[in-house]
Sequence to fold (312 residues):
Amino acid sequence: MTTATIIIVSYNTAHLIRDCLESVQEQRGALDQQVIVIDNGSSDDSLAVISEYPDVELIDAGENLGFARAVNRAAETADAAFVVLLNPDTVVLDHAIERLVEFALAHPGHGLYGGRAVQRDGSLESSSCWGLPSLWSMTCFALGLTTFLRGSALFDPESLGNWKRDTIREVGMVTGCLLLVPMASWRELGGFDERYFMYGEDADIAFRARDAGYRPIITPDACIVHDVGGASPSRRDRLRQVFQAKATLLREHFHGWRRRVVLAELLVGVALRTAIASIGPGKRRPTAEGWHQVWRDRRLWIGGYCGRRDDR
Fold:
């Protein structure tokens, strides 16, 4: 059995994925790894670029399956002790995946493992992990505090404050830019919830992992470069998908009056940001247009994705 299967989901990432695959190969160290790239029907040269790497197993989905469904399909073919998810807009540094595997072996029982992300200039990119949504964090979002007091441990709790991701720490969730899961845990959790087309699937599996007794954790010794948004859709589409995923997450993991409150807070927070963006200077017009579109589409996304996880 292979030690780690690295899964990369590609969709029109020809401009990014070569650097990613080069780093995966160059920084493997002594790791016994399998690399699977599943392409979601790219219309650019992604398939040609991926085909340049004979050691990479390519799955051509022929259509856009979305992130969660694509990962699950690739994981079905994996034969390894660990599943490692890696974004195509990342570059592996200093044997990061090998170090992450070693960390997981030395700290069993956490279920979900992640590392530290930086930008091209070496500055922190905080998106490797977050806190999970809570009644308090959604109240802060509704009041605009997560924007006006961005990075505050108290008023922007999902950001985890000013922590530089430079220490070993248990976290609410580990994002899919670099996420290691023991295969036994992946199967126990049932993989990703395929209702999440893009965004939210990593938060959902973190909620379920915590319910199962796991405590997601990161180590700064596993470091990658992450060009956030490099493999994402336009801002307008991204915002809509983010909020549809968020609404699904809140509907799935909050119950009774708490569910009603957090969904209302989600709408209030979007309305507030739309109003603020509207009165900003002219250079903010693209931002204003994005928020206006999200607000106009609120009836489309506030219901979340259809069905429940068990309906798949």
Q: What stands out?
A: The mean pLDDT is 93.
